[in-house]
Structures are given as C-alpha cells and as structure tokens.
C-alpha cells in the first residue's frame, strides 16, 4: 500500500510539474522572441554579467538547505522554522554585500549602467531567501500543484511587466523588472500555497546535520558554478559584451527551458528516491526510468533543434542574431549530453553523499576549465564546442564514480543512454537534411518539415524491440499520471 501510494503521489506530482514547465517553456520562448526584438545584445550582455554574481550568491543563499530538508528522514516544525530564518538572514546579508559591491563592479567592467542594475537585483536574494523553505516544504510533501501555479504565474507576470517596460523604452531595465516581479510573485505564491508562517527560532531544535550536508552541497555547487561561469567570463573578457550577448541568448534559448524541465522534476524525484534509499531494486528501477524519461523526452527535441539551428535562430531571435546559429547548435548537443548524467546528481542528493559530490565536482571542474581554455583559441564557437566535448567526457566519469561509492544499475544506464544518443543522432540528422531541402521556402517551412522528418525517423526506431520496451515504460508511467489525476479530481 505504501509503495502504491508513493508511486501515485509521484505520478500526480510529475503531471503537475510537467504541465507547469510546459507553460513556463512557452513563456520563456515568448520572452526570447519578443524581448530580443525590443532589446539589444548589449542589454543582455549587461544582465549576463550581473547574473554571474547573482547566481554565485544564490548558492550561499540556499546553503544546500533545500535539498537537506527534503532529504531528511524526519523534519519537525521547529527545524523547518530554524531553516527558514537561516535562509532569510543569509539572503539579507547577500543583498547588502551586492549593494556595496555594485560600484566596484561598475568600475571593473567600465559599464556605468551596471551599477543600478546590480543594486536593484540585489533584492532577489531577499525574495528568494524568504521563499526557500516554503518551496522546500511543498516539495517534501509532494504538494506540487501550488508550486506549479506559483512558478507559472511568476513567469507570466514577470514577462508582461518586462514587455511593458521595454515598449516604454526602458532598455535593460525591462530585464531587471522581469526578475524582480517574478521573484515577488513566486514568494507570494509559495507562502499562500504552503499555508504556514515561521515561528521564532527554536534553539532546542537541532539542524546541525542538515547544515553539515548543506555545507558540502554549497562547496560542491560553488565549484560547479565557478566552472559553469568560466565560459561567460572568457567570452566577455576576450570577445566583448556584444559577443557575450549572442552567447548568452544562445545559452538561455537551450539551457533555460532545459533547466525548467529538469529542476522541477527533481522536486518529484528527490523525495521519492530519498524514501527508497534502503529498497535497492526499486531505487534502481526509478533511477533507470528517470534517465529514459529525461533522455527521450528532452533529448529528441534537443536533437531537432541542433539540426534546425539556422531557421530556429531566425524565427526566435530575428535576422540580426544569425551569428548565434552555430552556438545554438552546439548548446543543444551539450544539453543532450548533460541530461544523460543528470540522474547521477539526484542519487548524490537522495543518499546524502555531499562529500563525494564535492570531490567529483572538483575533479570534473578541472576538466571543464581545461576544455574551455583550449576552445577559446578558436573563438566563441570554439568555447561552445569545448563545453559539448566536456559533457561527453563527464557522463561516463559520473557513472564510474558513482558505481564505486554506492550501488548503481550502471550497465542498464549505459545501455539506455546509448539508445537515447543513437535515436537522437538519427532524428537530428534527418531534421537537418529535410530542412536544408526546403530552405527556399523559408524558416517556418524548414522547422515544420525538418521536425516532422526527425520525429518520423525517431518513431521508426520502434521496430527495434529495445526501443519498444522503452516506449512501453514511458507510456505506462504517463497512463499512471493521467489515471491517478482523474481519480484525484473525481474524489
């Protein structure tokens, strides 16, 4: 009964999460299409520089306590309150630090506009610090409907405000308004959805073990984040803000929707896997199924984007952004490769392997920095190619590393990943060939015909028994989601 209840809760949570993220991806695409025509690459270059600091601060602001509170076998209301105040105080402190650092940032970059942008965006630390444990509480309880509503509403209202400011001639301030509006709406949404307000800090309620795990996650995330920002820094320093704007838009056109799918799915996977830590057969089944779901549902669309990068850039960004096409293609390939190893990160979190995650991250960060250093000698495109090469190297290292420290269905994961890469490669190649054949008809025809050709070829893989088994597993889970949601709605 407990097993059935957990599966049903996970299925319902996945349904809400996938629906919300589909809506957020649409909003993100609308944001790219509209704002790219109202703003300039320079505006996005300024935002990219500030968001490097915001992202760094967010690691400290969360302090790994979201994952720690979800992973904890038990969590009292007093412990939850204590974690809330820790996150809130860290957020306020970071806001002050960024406010004070805005003037040196303007002097270092030589961009006076960036001072005001950094000062206003410092408020995001306060908003997110107040929201952290409300979000974690909803995730821990698998109450993902209010979380989904808050996320979609924040993205929609933030985009609407940004468009109004951009149309009024606000320039990069539209991007600032978008960030702050989204953060405010999300905070209000999770507080209302969570249905609780924090009490006073309870000294008798110990959170030491969660803070200890959180510290290891902070250290790992810092290393990982630093490695992720090396490319942004290299492109900005060596090739200027306009090239950085092209790089930034190409990156976000792929990685933002990708993150909006993977990260919320973590809110379903992590509490489920944490409860199955001692049930190895079921744990392995969930991990394998998660990789197949991520790989096929994300990998095939990314392969189509890689094959159709030229018309996609024209449609999404406009003719002025044509130089972004090769960047977009390589980011799509990199996104597919990194998705294959993403379930490994969930295993680290679910089993509380913070120290091992830190060591693995340190090792792979060195590899990534080395790849980017070499790639930068070949221009901006070389940097993106280097990132794709890094992810191709990281994936087998990730599985090998995990298999040394914890039981893992390594052979099944390797086999599933190879099937995913195979069908994605053929689908992407078919999309490219079909799109090129109708290039004279315009970008919309290229995307339509190319996507149809790629999907048809992917569907043809069902003649292979292994692919039919994969499809059966995915369809079974989708039926479970729909059936259980109808049951929940009827009751």
From TrEMBL:
Compartments, as annotated in UniProt: Cell membrane
Principal location class: membrane
Keywords: Cell membrane, Membrane, Transmembrane, Transmembrane helix
Domain of life, per lineage: Bacteria
Topology with respect to the bilayer: Multi-pass membrane protein
Signal peptide range: none
Single GO cellular component term: plasma membrane
Keyword hit for Cell membrane: yes
Transmembrane segments: 46-63, 83-102, 114-131, 152-174, 180-199, 285-307, 327-348, 360-393, 413-440, 447-467
Matches recorded under InterPro entries: Poly_Biosynth_Transport (IPR050833)
Pfam families per UniProt: Polysacc_synt_3 (PF13440)
Entry similarity comment: Belongs to the polysaccharide synthase family.
Stated name of the protein: PST family polysaccharide transporter
Species: Agrococcus jenensis
């Amino acid at each position: 009964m407990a097993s059935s209840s957990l599966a049903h809760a996970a299925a319902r949570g996945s349904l809400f999460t996938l629906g919300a993220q589909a809506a957020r991806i649409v909003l993100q695409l609308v944001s790219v299409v509209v704002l790219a025509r109202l703003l300039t690459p320079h505006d996005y270059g300024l935002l990219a520089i500030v968001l490097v600091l915001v992202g760094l601060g967010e690691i400290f602001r969360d302090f790994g306590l979201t994952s720690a509170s979800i992973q904890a076998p038990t969590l009292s209301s007093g412990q939850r309150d204590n974690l809330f105040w820790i996150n809130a105080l860290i957020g306020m402190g970071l806001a002050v630090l960024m406010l004070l650092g805005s003037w040196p940032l303007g002097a270092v970059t030589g961009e006076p506009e960036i001072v005001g942008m950094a000062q206003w965006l410092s408020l995001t630390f306060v908003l997110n610090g107040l929201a952290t444990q409300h979000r974690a509480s909803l995730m821990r309880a698998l109450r993902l409907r209010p979380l989904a509503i808050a996320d979609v509403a924040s993205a929609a209202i933030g985009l609407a405000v940004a468009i109004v400011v951009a149309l009024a001639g606000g320039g990069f301030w539209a991007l600032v308004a978008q960030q702050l509006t989204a953060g405010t709406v999300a905070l209000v949404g999770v507080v209302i959805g969570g249905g609780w307000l924090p009490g006073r800090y309870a000294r008798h309620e110990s959170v030491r073990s969660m803070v200890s795990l959180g510290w290891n996650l902070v250290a790992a995330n810092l290393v990982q984040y630093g490695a992720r920002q090396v490319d942004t820094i290299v492109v900005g320093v060596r090739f200027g803000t306009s090239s950085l704007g092209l790089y930034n838009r190409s990156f976000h056109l792929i990685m933002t929707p990708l993150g909006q799918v993977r990260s919320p799915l973590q809110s379903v996977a992590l509490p489920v896997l944490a409860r199955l830590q001692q049930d190895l057969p079921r744990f392995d089944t969930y991990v394998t199924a998660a990789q197949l779901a991520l790989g096929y549902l994300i990998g095939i669309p990314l392969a189509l984007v890689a094959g159709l990068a030229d018309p996609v850039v024209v449609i999404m960004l406009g003719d002025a952004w044509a130089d972004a096409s090769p960047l977009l293609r390589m980011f799509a390939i990199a996104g597919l490769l990194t998705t294959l190893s993403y379930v490994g990160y969930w295993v680290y979190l679910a089993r509380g392997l913070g120290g091992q995650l830190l060591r693995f991250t340190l090792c792979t960060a060195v590899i990534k920095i080395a790849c980017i250093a070499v790639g930068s000698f070949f221009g901006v495109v070389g940097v993106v190619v280097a990132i794709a090469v890094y992810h191709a190297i990281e994936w087998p290292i990730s599985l090998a590393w995990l298999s040394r420290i914890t039981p893992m269905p390594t052979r099944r994961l390797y086999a599933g990943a190879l099937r995913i890469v195979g069908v994605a490669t053929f689908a992407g190649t078919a999309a490219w060939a079909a799109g090129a054949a109708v290039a004279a008809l315009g970008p919309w025809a290229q995307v339509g015909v190319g996507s149809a050709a790629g999907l048809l070829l992917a569907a043809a893989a069902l003649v292979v028994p292994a692919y039919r088994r994969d499809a059966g597993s995915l369809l079974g889970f989708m039926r479970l989601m729909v059936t259980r949601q109808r049951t929940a709605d009827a009751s």
